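Long-time lurker. I teach an intro course on protein structure, and each term I like to show students one example going from raw sequence to a predicted 3D structure in token notation. This year I'd like something fresh instead of my usual example. Would anyone be willing to generate the tokens for the chain below so I can use it in lecture? Attribution to the forum is fine with me.
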Amino acid sequence: MATTEMADTRIGRGRDRDRGQTAIEFLGVTPLIILLLVALWQCTLIGYTYSLASNAADEGARAGTAAQGYQQWACKRAAKEDLPQAWQGASSTHCRLDRGLYKAEVKLRVPVLVPGVLDFPMTVEGNAASVREG
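-- Reply from a regular --
Happy to contribute to a lecture. Here you go:
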């Protein structure tokens, strides 16, 4: 009976030494998990900015093509109309007629983590063209 009691105490002591190990490992990995989530969020913002730029250019080209007068104004207004407020501030739109096509180019700055607070120096460009009507 003495041998089983000794074996039980050895096993019990081994468990006591490992107590808290999972918590320490989790605390060590937590910054890596947070860093990964921040990187994924930033990649999402970059992709969303590309989507906004191409959609704004498409809307601008379509509006510039359909406008009878003030094509530049119609193009720029349509390009900025659907942009969220955080992306409108640093955006630039260039519209022109080129060999029967009305072209629009929209440039947007990519926000850092929170749109509207800080922008990357990286610029995303969206281009579109529409056939001139009439």
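Some talking points for your students: The beta strands are 92-98, 101-111, 119-131. The chain has a mean pLDDT of 85.
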